[in-house]
Amino acid sequence: MVVHLLVPDENVSDAGAGTPQVGFVVSKAVGNSVQRNLVKRRLRAAAAGRLGMLPDSARAVVRALPPSAGASYGDLDRDLDSCLRRAVARATGDAAR
User: Fold this and answer.
1) What's the pLDDT at 97?
2) CATH number for the domain harbouring residue 35
3) Which residues sit opposite 63 in a β-bridge?
4) What's the domain range around 26?
5) How far, in Å, CA of 64 to CA of 2, rounded?
6) What is the pLDDT of residue 92?
7) Is residue 11 part of a domain?
């Protein structure tokens, strides 16, 4: 799994204190439509519980890699948590997260 995170500058006019947004990219390399939708539903549920860890107005894109099709919900949950923590730490310059 790969996470790309954009945290808008505070000086930008539409960078108000909005809710973070998360989008998902699950390509055909992950599997057939049933497998892709299952991965997307699991990731969506896992991300919903982690919106609080993202800065306000942040936009994240989660790209599922082919091994995601065989991963359990717990594996996807842990992987997403790890990836989001790293992305937030890089975007905010905070190595402690």
Assistant:
1) 43
2) 3.30.230.10
3) 2, 25
4) 19-91
5) 7
6) 84
7) no
